[in-house]
Amino acid sequence: MPTDPQHPRRGPRLLARVLAPLLAALALVLTPAPLVPGAAAGTAEAVSVCQGRPARTIAFATGELRLYRTRHYACAVTVANGGGRRPMAVSLQPRGGRPAVRAGRFDRQAGPVTVHALNRCVRVSGSVAGRGTSTGWILC
Questions:
Q1: How far apart are CA 61 and CA 59, in angstroms?
Q2: pTM, full prediction
Q3: Contact, 39 vs 48, CB < 8 A?
């Protein structure tokens, strides 16, 4: 293999050009991400599971029902006050549509459930350990 007299060190430069971006990407992957200021680790308030802005929060004896809204969708989640596995449910129904329901035994929250609710009222209900709440038609 003939060598080019004008580029005698082409091999090491090519190797450096390939290895530098790979090492930089590896460093980014292995560097831990900073915590978001004000977000408590391990709490339900740290990060929302629903997209959109919070529309309503309805508290009841054993938890709270959170409702979020975007332009096209509504999303709901039931969050328990304390820990421990117990029966929970959340239901979200757009006017003129079928309810989206998530029920079972959960540790911290039931849901999220999302429905298409462009220009529609919604009805939401949630319960934790047999105690809960429900709304009439809201977000009209």
A1: 7
A2: 0.66
A3: no
Per-residue pLDDT at 32: 62
Written as six digits, the tokens of 100 are: 């989206």
Q: Tokens 């709440």: give the residue.
A: 133
For 38, the token pair is 């004000």
Q: What does R_g of the chain's alpha carbons equal in angstroms?
A: 26
HEC assignment per residue over the chain: CCCCCCCCCHHHHHHHHHHHHHHHHHHHHHCCCCCCCCCCCCCCCCCCCCCCEEEEEEEECCEEEEEEECCCEEEEEEEECCCCCEEEEEEEEECCCCCEEEEEEECCEEEEEEEECCCCCEEEEEEECCEEEECCCECC
Q: Which two tokens stand for residue 87?
A: 């029966």
**pLDDT on residue 67:** 97
User: How far is Cα 90 from Cα 60, in angstroms, rounded to an integer?
Assistant: 13
